Amino acid sequence: MASIKGITVKIIARVQIGVDEFNAPIYADEEPIKVDNVLVAPVGSQENLDVTNLYGKKAQYQLGIPKGDTHVWTDAIVEFYGYRWHVFSLPQKGIDKMIPLRWNDKYYVERYE
Questions:
Q1: How far apart are CA 19 and CA 22, in angstroms?
Q2: Is the dihedral of CA 105, 82, 56, 88 positive or negative?
Q3: pTM of the model
Q4: Is residue 84 in some structural domain?
Q5: Is residue 2 part of a domain?
Q6: Which parts of the chain register pLDDT below 70?
Q7: Residue 35's domain is classified under what CATH number?
């Protein structure tokens, strides 16, 4: 029996380095950090409608984050499958002890160009 395995995803955190003349924040990207064993799954059509109605954005993939991960995924840029993606959702999180597998948080991503 094959076990479920995730892929390695690079997360690129953004840090605020200042503000512009309109007082809007200016961000810089930090060095990419590799996170192993992240589940990546395409979003189904009905779930995509729900996400679009909730966030106003079209989700293309959902990420399953391993338990114990301490990175800040909300509003982060991630790289996988050769593209950059923007994490736009808040985490959907369960109780670690109640979830039998190795992943707990779920986020949605959209294509980032």
A1: 8
A2: positive
A3: 0.83
A4: yes
A5: no
A6: 1-2
A7: 2.40.10.270
